Known about the structure:
Elements: H1 2-5, H2 18-21, H3 23-37, H4 43-57, H5 62-87, H6 104-128, H7 139-142, H8 144-161, H9 164-170, H10 174-181, H11 186-189, H12 191-210, H13 213-217, H14 219-238
Helix pairs in contact: 3-5, 3-6, 4-6, 5-8
Amino acid sequence: AIIHNLKDTQDIRFMGNLMVHMPLTCVCLNISNLALCGMPFLAGFYSKDLILEVVSMDFINIIIFLLFFVSTGLTVCYSFRLCYYSITGDFNFYSLHSLNDEGWIMLKSMLAMLMFVIFSGSMLMWLIFPTPIMICLPMELKMLALFVSVIGAWVGYELAKFSVSWVSSSLKFYSYSYFFGFMWFMPNISTFSMNYIPLMLSYNLFKNFDQGWNEYFGGQGMYMNLKKNSMFLQFLQNN
């Protein structure tokens, strides 16, 4: 709903003060973000916290262990950054563009899914695991998930306050902003290369063969040459 209201853009820097313009949608978005972060007693908490504790209790590689917790911190980081942009600040889109929260079909579906976000985690936990799972961890590892989440939330808050436009105007960090803005060149590796290379190959084939020498020496060119020669011979025979 927010993307549709912002003319199909996904840049969160255009957001701001959505709680005033789209209150119900903003509430659903932020509660879902908190569930994604693993906020206690929401849907994501019962799976994410259990996965992290089982990983901490198991004998795994230190690199995999670090990847689990770093990814958790980054998830909390961008989720809190999105919450900050959507709730606070000024509306950064077009000044004449107005938002509305009147799509009741979409609102009903979002509110229905919001109920699942709030209650489904605990209900499924009680149904799937009839007895509590024994997790034996030292206090440091037990609190590591909470510590990583708090650090990620703080980093997301600081990044939300960071003035990107001022730094970009000086062009000092252009390469870094380009690198992170393109998702670590993921579009060039995945979708862009898969679409660009076949399309450019077909364009070059069309330009060099269909619209090039193949047009003159192929079937169409031979037909035109034979037609001109036959017309010239017909002209000579008639005279």
